[in-house]
Design goal:
By secondary structure, the protein is an alpha+beta fold. The protein has helices spanning 30-43, 90-99, 118-121, 163-166, 193-199, 209-222, 248-262, 282-288, 318-336; strands spanning 2-8, 20-27, 47-50, 56-58, 63-70, 75-78, 81-85, 102-103, 124-125, 128-129, 134-141, 146-151, 171-179, 181-182, 245-247, 271-272, 277-279, 300-302, 310-312, 345-347. It is globular. The two termini are 34 Å apart.
């Protein structure tokens, strides 16, 4: 287990932002992860868990405590049963399952970060969410002081949410187990309209899983959502805001604001979200509020490829990024009465 003091954290995040940690520990086994967490808890030391750093905004002053970088490895495939160590690279793991001819996570290709982060956010894109394939999550329970196994139901998955996100100081994910489908090399049914159009098929159709993966990677790359050190549009956390989910009453008020601002014939994106609620598009809101691609004049700007990504153009500070995020939140609320919620975890800062 490697230990460093006054260690830079910015290189461990896809934003490349944030100050140092008082202490940085890198754990390469589950036992080392548990030992580091226990040591921090027993000494009352603040703990920051870092995986791939793709969903993390760290303040410029850094983190006064122990930062634990999970670098565990382990990819086990038995038929359609997949087990991943928390530190496994997620995009690489997706590629390996597609190579094995299995379906279920192929449309989650190219998402940066580690496997252990996927159940926390209930990672999803292009018509798939990990909640549909995760069977169990093995985690260290800091309240009980022991390793536990949570079933899919116990994870309480919902849109970009889970029990792990609901109780951020309780669980440290160690391993994630999935049930994938052997469909003879075909993908799961294509659910997302953009993906279906790109593939030239109808919603619900299946295509070769490798083709689905390649298509999603191309779509993501076109939006700056595949990591490329030379492309500042990828110096981001991907989608910075979640898509708002509105009650019927709130949606009616929102629709009235849209038509007042943009014209009576304007219909915003709307998707049923259950329980009398409607989900709309954060990217659409941002764009229609005047924050177009490339918006900004400072070192933190909206991506030139996608309005939902805030980016570090190379010389930004976290405060620059947060100032831009606050401007977008305030502008969307002023225009449409909807409050955007940031998707990345913030440490030492608030939006």
């Amino acid at each position: 287990m490697q230990e460093l003091h006054d260690a830079p954290l910015a290189p461990l995040t896809t934003f490349r932002l944030g100050g140092p940690a008082t202490r940085l520990v890198t754990a390469t086994t589950d036992a080392e992860v548990v030992a580091a967490v226990r040591a921090a808890d027993e000494s009352g030391t603040p703990l920051l868990v870092i995986g791939g750093g793709s969903n993390l905004v760290i303040g410029d002053r850094g983190f006064d405590g122990t930062a634990l970088r999970i670098a565990t490895t382990g990819f086990t495939l038995d038929g359609g049963t997949l087990e991943l160590a928390a530190g496994e690279n997620w995009s690489d793991a997706v590629a390996r399952t597609v190579e094995a001819g299995l379906a279920g996570i192929e449309c989650l290709a190219g998402i940066p970060g580690s496997a252990g982060a996927t159940p926390i956010q209930n990672v999803g894109a292009y018509g798939q969410e990990v909640s549909s394939t995760i069977t169990e999550v093995v985690a260290y329970d800091r309240h009980l002081g022991e390793t536990v196994t949570l079933t899919n139901a116990e994870c309480a998955f919902s849109y970009r949410h889970s029990t792990f996100k609901d109780q951020p100081d309780r669980y440290v994910v160690l391993r994630v187990r999935f049930a994938l489908e052997d469909a003879g090399g075909l993908s799961a049914p294509i659910r997302y309209a953009e993906t279906a159009r790109a593939l030239g098929v109808g919603p619900g159709d299946r295509v070769p899983a490798a083709k689905a993966r390649e298509t999603v990677l191309a779509l993501r790359a076109g939006k700056g959502m595949v990591l490329d050190p030379a492309d500042h549009d990828t110096w981001s956390a991907g989608s910075f805001f979640t898509n708002p989910i509105l009650t019927d009453e709130d949606y009616a008020a929102f629709l009235a604001r849209v038509q007042e601002r943009l014209g009576a014939d304007t219909v915003p994106p709307a998707y049923p979200a259950g329980d009398g609620r409607t989900k709309t598009s954060a990217a659409w809101l941002i764009d229609k509020a005047g924050f177009t691609k490339g918006y900004g004049t400072g070192p933190a700007r909206i991506s030139t490829k996608h309005t939902l990504a805030l980016t570090n153009r190379g010389a930004a500070t976290t405060e620059d990024l947060v100032a831009l995020a606050r401007e977008v939140v305030a502008g969307v609320h002023a225009a449409f009465g909807v409050t955007l919620v940031n998707e990345p975890v913030t440490v030492g800062v608030t939006i």
